[in-house]
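Data deposition worksheet. Section B asks for the primary sequence of the deposited chain exactly as it was used as input, without tags or linkers unless they were present during the calculation. Section C holds the resulting structure in token form. Section D is free text for depositor observations; keep each observation to a single sentence. Incomplete worksheets are returned to the depositor.
Section A, Depositor: J.P.
Section B:
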Amino acid sequence: MNKRKQKIVEHALALFLEKGIRNTSIQDIIERARISKGTFYNYFSSKNECVGALLEQLRYEAGLHRNELLVGKDPKDLDVLIDQIAILSELNQKRGMAAVFEEIFYSGDKELKKLVLHYRISELKWLSERLVDVYGEELRPHALEGSVIFYGIMQHLLFAGKILHQDSVQPRAAAASAFHYMGFITDALIHSNTAVLDVESFKAFNKNLNREQLDINDSIKMLKELLEDPDVTKVQEDLTNALLSELERDEPREAVIQALLQPFIESYQDSSRHHIVKEISGLIWYSVRQR
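Section C:
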């Protein structure tokens, strides 16, 4: 999402939190963002499409942070997965998304509900793959059900913590607690035939989901911009060129990318561009895994 579109989405979210989605008009968003009506319609065909862009931006940001956490780490490391899971909940809390989701749930607006459904299905798909990383390929036929069960436990723990005013029940704590039980649950799914969801039905349903695809050329462009910095060191230059060389292959090798990203980030540890490099690294890993 380009910066101007992102800015409009941020202004829209502020209005949704102040007035509610239903009571926020397109004209309100135009005035708050200080743009013309034509500019709004260049990016969105409707207010609901703006809500969809907001959900996609949250998922995208979470994806970048999650991939940043995974760089140089063992995908089987449960602590890494717990941190990755907590990120989306923390982002939602930070942005006040609970109020937005609640309004959509009670709105009766089928289009908005469908947007949230896509958002949640994308999250289930992501966790399904990560559960396979941690618990092994045996779980794959039932990984979707495992992700449904996990989020059921985690969300009810967070809900109970909230109504009991128990501040210690934060996303990471809830995720860690839920994983205490997942070993037993995954074992039952694999060996005890306890699964009830039809994975083939999910696959058929999922074909209708539209997800924004990241272009690996965006990563290449950002790396080339780093090389234009007059203060770039020899180590930084060599690592950046190595990443560029790999990304420009017809089929970038995931193992090579992973091996390069950690030293690439570390080479900018004391640089003012460190935060940009971390963002680029997340984008690279996200786009390579997506392919």
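Section D:
The CA atoms of residues 18 and 183 lie 43 Å apart.
The chain has three domains: 1-45, 51-206, 216-290.
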